[in-house]
Design goal:
Elements lengths: L1 H6 L1 H11 L8 H16 L5 H19 L3 E4 L10 E5 L6 H12 L6 E5 L6 H9 L2 E4 L6 H20 L4 E4 L14 H8 L7 H7 L1 E9 L5 H14 L9 H11 L5 E5 L10 H14 L5 H10 L18 H12 L5 H22 L1
Parallel strand pairs: 1-7, 2-5, 2-6, 3-4, 3-5
Antiparallel strand pairs: 6-7
Helix pairs in contact: 2-3, 8-12, 10-15, 12-15, 13-15
């Protein structure tokens, strides 16, 4: 896999775009030669996944430093590093949501988590190799027939059980696909899949056997927000499922990693109580933590105000910020430059974070 990666045109071009974002077209061939040489030298001597993650941690730290205005994490102290843990997270970015958690774990000197990845992302060889080297494993989303689908889900659940029982931690998104509309909710079907390996012991036994820990990731800016808005608009106009172009997921991954994200906040919650006896009950408990721990940046508040007749300041809860910021002005300009028919979908991606929070409060009341 390493040999394929260091010669992969996709990987070489991604490294060129990352290290030389403003390079002129005439210099690209030279930059590619330098990138291949750099990849080869960096991969020399790597003989394990741990060594690979240790080597790329410098690149990841550079990415955090250059494409964010600060990455802060909290809550890891509430989790026992020795207990079998499944981190269940909201899903906004294809690669970064899980990578940021692993970066936080790595920074604290703790083992990184295995990462559940939809099989649609394994269609590109470079992306597949890179994700496998970062402890990625496949979650099959489609199979021919209900029996084949059940068997595929059973294999995934068994693998996750074997992982946590052998001391590995696991990361998985709260539902299939990114929340492109900015509305985070846990799919009970996901919890049913996780619990399949404990089906003979019951759902509560599953919750007793693992620590199911909610994770919230909040981005001040989403580098892929305009492409998400375009997709949502096209789905609404056609009434048909969205058909992705070849390598669209890979392009989104690269945009997410290399694009400006403003401030980023990751919050690790507390383990879900084993008192819940249904996936729906456990899912609601996960949602309360994920949504409650989402951070409201000025971009979210401004988008909300644009869609509401009466601007509001403190409605988003305590974990929020009001006022302006350099990224807010950037977001405003992005909205002005966006095609008019995409603009409502662009705003809702940010505003729905607040709507989500308010809906959770109303439900609890």
């Amino acid at each position: 896999m390493l040999s394929r990666l260091q010669t992969s045109p996709d990987m070489v071009d991604a490294l060129v775009n990352f290290q030389f974002p403003r390079i002129g077209r005439a210099m690209v061939p030279i930059a590619r030669i330098l990138a291949r040489s750099r990849l080869k030298s960096q991969f020399d001597g790597i003989d394990s996944v741990a060594a690979f993650q240790d080597r790329i941690s410098g690149y990841f730290g550079h990415m955090v430093h250059t494409t964010t205005d600060g990455f802060n994490y909290r809550g890891l102290e509430s989790t026992d590093s020795g207990a079998p843990t499944i981190f269940i997270s909201n899903h906004r970015d294809i690669a970064l949501d899980s990578a940021l958690l692993n970066y936080a774990l790595f920074s604290e000197g703790r083992p990184t988590a295995r990462v559940a990845i939809g099989d649609n992302l394994f269609s590109n060889d470079s992306a597949s190799d890179f994700m496998r080297l970062n402890k990625g494993f496949v979650v099959k989303r489609k199979a021919s027939g209900r029996k084949a689908m059940y068997e595929a889900l059973q294999i995934t659940s068994n693998f996750i059980r074997e992982s946590v029982e052998s001391g590995e931690q696991v990361w998985i998104a709260q539902r299939a696909g990114r929340a492109k509309d900015g509305f985070d909710r846990t799919d009970p079907a996901l919890l049913k899949m996780l619990a399949l390996a404990w089906r003979d012991e019951g759902f509560q036994r599953f919750l007793q056997a693992v620590r199911l820990v909610p994770v919230s990731v909040s981005y001040e800016l989403d580098p892929c927000d305009l492409s998400k808005a375009r997709e949502l608009y096209e789905v609404q106009e056609s009434g048909e499922p969205y058909a992705k172009a070849p390598d669209e997921d890979l392009i989104s991954m690269i945009e997410g990693v290399t694009g400006q994200k403003g401030r980023v906040r990751l919050t690790v919650g507390v383990p879900v109580s084993s008192e819940h006896d249904t996936p729906e009950g456990a899912g609601a408990a996960i949602d309360r933590q994920i949504v409650g721990n989402l951070h409201v940046f000025p971009t979210h508040q401004w988008a909300w105000n644009q869609l509401e007749s009466e601007p509001t300041g403190g409605s988003a809860g305590e974990d929020s910020e009001s006022g302006s910021s350099p990224r807010l002005e950037e977001f405003k300009q992005r909205c002005r430059d966006a095609p008019a028919h995409y603009r409502p979908f662009l705003l809702r991606q940010y505003a729905n974070l607040i709507k989500n929070k308010q809906g959770m409060v109303d439900t609890e009341a």
